[in-house]
Design brief:
The chain is mainly alpha-helical and about 300 residues long. The protein folds into 2 domains: about 1-90; about 90-215, Leucine-rich Repeat Variant (Alpha Horseshoe). The chain has helices spanning about 5-15, 20-35, 40-50, 50-60, 65-80, 80-90, 90-100, 105-120, 125-130, 135-145, 150-160, 165-175, 175-185, 190-205, 210-215, 220-230, 235-250, 250-260, 265-275, 275-290, 300-305.
Length: about 300
């Protein structure tokens, strides 16, 4: 279909959306979903149509779950175009997304709002804006209260995007993200969520605030050991990365590891049967443990005997 025909179809759909007929409105929204689903040029054509985005944003707040879901789907589709991410991330829109995540009208709208947010957050220029709008606190609160809800993965993915910015990392740590993420990380029933949570913890650990919060967590080395014993390779990689950062920061963490009778055995297993990245990190951890200045309670002979 030519650009001219697509533009005409978009105008027709917007006219139908403005009508009083709910049936025609829904059909028009469904057509716009199809038009914007796979074609980036079509998304640009819709975004360039006068009043289109404001209408969709208004409908995304509709009391009708069907209308809200379709409008959010179209907005998410538009956000896939890199050139539209910044214009869609107006403060008013971010505040709306915050409220939609905190008090979703439905499970589907919660997932779509989180996906829309995550897409916008992929643009580096938008990350700080979300932090200023309080989105980090909103995500931590929503993830904590709906730990196994259908939107959990989408919410975690949004948090993962936003904490790549240092300022947002600080806010996340102060909002209680570390203990919340550690709970997910230790849950073997949800490996996907655990892996994403550990990936976020690795991002937080790049900065002093995050690393300090991890270091102050009771039995953090033992918690990471339990993750290394699990099945999820992404989680193993994340746990090993966190341990490397902890070992670099604190010799006390290495001594805590040496006091765990099966720590070296588990590391040896990961270094042989893990993914390439996990094997590399496990090898680095063993090297650090061999090189540490051992105290009177754990000497070099004992370590070599364990190994």
């Amino acid at each position: 279909m030519s650009s001219l025909r697509i533009r005409e179809a978009i105008v027709e759909c917007l006219d139908e959306i403005r009508s009083d007929s709910r049936e025609n409105q829904l059909k028009a929204l469904q057509t716009l979903v199809s038009i914007t689903k796979v074609n980036s040029q079509n998304r640009n054509l819709l975004a360039q149509t006068d009043g289109a985005i404001s209408i969709l944003l208004s409908l995304s707040k509709s009391a009708s779950p069907a209308v809200e879901t379709l409008a959010l789907t179209i907005l998410f589709n538009l956000s896939l175009n890199p050139n539209l991410k910044q214009s869609l991330a107006e403060m008013e829109n971010i505040i709306y997304l915050n409220s939609a995540i905190l008090a979703p009208a439905s499970a589907e709208s919660s997932k779509l709002a989180a996906s829309f947010l995550c897409s916008l957050a992929m643009l580096d220029k938008n990350k700080a804006k979300f932090g200023v709008a309080g989105t980090i606190q909103v995500l931590v609160s929503a993830i904590s209260s709906r730990s196994h809800g259908p939107a959990s993965h989408h919410l975690l993915s949004s948090l993962a995007e936003l904490v790549q910015f240092h300022g947002n990392c600080t806010v996340a740590v102060r909002s209680g993200a570390v203990p919340m993420l550690l709970k997910f990380a230790g849950n073997r029933d949800g490996e996907d969520l655990a892996g994403t949570s550990l990936a976020i913890l690795c991002l937080l650990a790049r900065f002093e605030e995050g690393l300090s919060a991890l270091r102050k967590t009771d039995e953090i080395v033992g918690s990471m050991l339990e993750v290394l014993k699990g099945r999820c390779m992404l989680s193993k990689e994340g746990a090993a990365d966190i341990l490397i950062r902890l070992f670099d920061e604190s010799e006390g963490c290495i001594r805590d590891a040496l006091r765990l009778p099966d720590f070296l055995t588990v590391l040896a297993d990961v270094s042989v049967r893990g993914s390439g990245r996990a094997r590399e990190k496990a090898g680095s951890l063993m090297k650090k443990m061999m090189e540490v200045n051992l105290d009177s309670h754990v000497d070099g002979k004992y370590l070599m005997h364990q190994w």
